[in-house]
From TrEMBL, chains A, B:
Gene3D superfamilies: Farnesyl Diphosphate Synthase (1.10.600.10). The keyword Cytoplasm does not apply. It catalyses: isopentenyl diphosphate + (2E)-geranyl diphosphate = (2E,6E)-farnesyl diphosphate + diphosphate. InterPro entries: Isoprenoid_synthase_dom_sf, Polyprenyl_synt, Polyprenyl_synt_CS, Prenyl_diphosphate_synthase. Keywords: Isoprene biosynthesis, Magnesium, Metal-binding, Transferase. It comes from the Bacteria. Belongs to the FPP/GGPP synthase family. GO terms for biological process: terpenoid biosynthetic process. This is Farnesyl diphosphate synthase. Its cofactor is Mg(2+). GO terms for cellular component: cytoplasm. Its EC number is 2.5.1.10. GO terms for molecular function: (2E,6E)-farnesyl diphosphate synthase activity; metal ion binding.
Amino acid sequence: MSHPSITDYIKERASLIERELAAYAPEEWHIPAVLKDAMTYSLMAGGKRLRPVMVLAAAEACGGSVEAALPVAAAVEMVHTYSLVHDDLPALDNDDYRRGRLTNHKMYGEAIAILAGDALLTHAFYSASRASRLYGVPAERVLDIIEELAVLAGPRGMVGGQVADMQGEQGLTQLAELEYIHLHKTSDLIVFSLKAGGRIGGATERQLSALETYGRNIGLAFQIQDDILDVVGDEQKLGKAVRSDEKMQKVTYPYFIGLEASRLKVTELTDLGKKAVRDAGFQAPERLLELADFLTERDH
Amino acid sequence: MSHPSITDYIKERASLIERELAAYAPEEWHIPAVLKDAMTYSLMAGGKRLRPVMVLAAAEACGGSVEAALPVAAAVEMVHTYSLVHDDLPALDNDDYRRGRLTNHKMYGEAIAILAGDALLTHAFYSASRASRLYGVPAERVLDIIEELAVLAGPRGMVGGQVADMQGEQGLTQLAELEYIHLHKTSDLIVFSLKAGGRIGGATERQLSALETYGRNIGLAFQIQDDILDVVGDEQKLGKAVRSDEKMQKVTYPYFIGLEASRLKVTELTDLGKKAVRDAGFQAPERLLELADFLTERDH
């Protein structure tokens, strides 16, 4: 059997994740209809499902089971989705569209969007907690995963990055500030995804540390690539207005160090991430290595 | 040593909880200052800390350690606090004051209030997850606690109740609808508190089931008492405008069955709750029994 391309691998894993997400709330659960609709609207809005794919890829790199990693993969997508729903709110980014569809609050109103976000965040912890009961992942490991999710998605992690980003809109003066934002707003959840997958797959401490280095570097590279695409990208491919950051007077990586140096930085970070993975003795590191290139070579 | 009154018991346990809450974010953690301030502002705003006291009381009823129950007690107060911060937002209840102080969004703006609520909710799961690492509570038990927190605070629980409440403002026609709101908006977190404390204390299945019955009944009684106080209570004691529900044209228990029948219902539910606890063979059920009376005899 030939080795499927990384694009096919991502598609195939994403479809497993879609199936897992689609089953997040069984029929017999009593949830007010509008709440369930609003949660489902944003959860099933598509996207490449990159974070949950990373959970599965890290589990597989350790020789672990894809199935056992699905509840945590779904959890990370729920956290990512809630963060988008809340970020889009009028009090925050005030966006009317995301991925070419109306944002949650434009569909359901602000109150329901706030509560649907809250519900998705809470339900993420439910989903993650089930890995033990459903697939026999040792309770200690699942608890470590939950603790780390709370750290990396919480005030020291993603929410902290979001607050710094908001404040940065009033004027960033240093590259270090922008890097703080990128690391927490983007890398933290990627680092979580990789380490959680690793834990499920039985990663050694050395491998967990390599996954952290890999995640931090490719997360930052991914975000710098996003900044670059926002300057040079093609509007149609991206499905959103380009130069929106510039219009919002938002400071990006190219603003500080220029386009060419930003591109070099992406390559450098990607290489650092891949090296960490290569040196950590994974059973099957290929997909992680391919994913790093896929993420930073994308044009949308 | 004489048996301290239930009021003294609550005060003493609440002070342990205050200390635990005050330490929620060590100095060395890097959290944007405004985010930490906003989280602390609402978390340390006082209140009787009834839910976390219930965690401790249930653990003690089983002969368990108060100390080991503190991380989960703090967690439930964080969840309660986040729910108040989000409920107060302009898009929801649009309240300017709570407990005589400006609400979070009046102090810090809507964006920070939304994110501070998100951070408190996420951090609650961090706090709960630490019970194992810090106090040796078996990981399986902590995982059960986390799963139940996610259920009872999530779309099937508290958030579901909140959505039903919002929709109910457009006109409830049946008592069953109001009961659904009360049970989920209020009882669910109380049930969680009691069962989580029970699990930490090593409760049997029969005791967990008794704690659920007790929590469901006194939670509903507590909420009906709240409805009653809103009709007849004294403005100064309550520290908020009475008859606010009526002004908002909000439907309450007395609206459906009258004041006297509502009072009888409170007594009946309290008795049912106490009976469940009495019959379940707890090592030290006294505080739970006293708590039930304290909650429903309060005049503010």
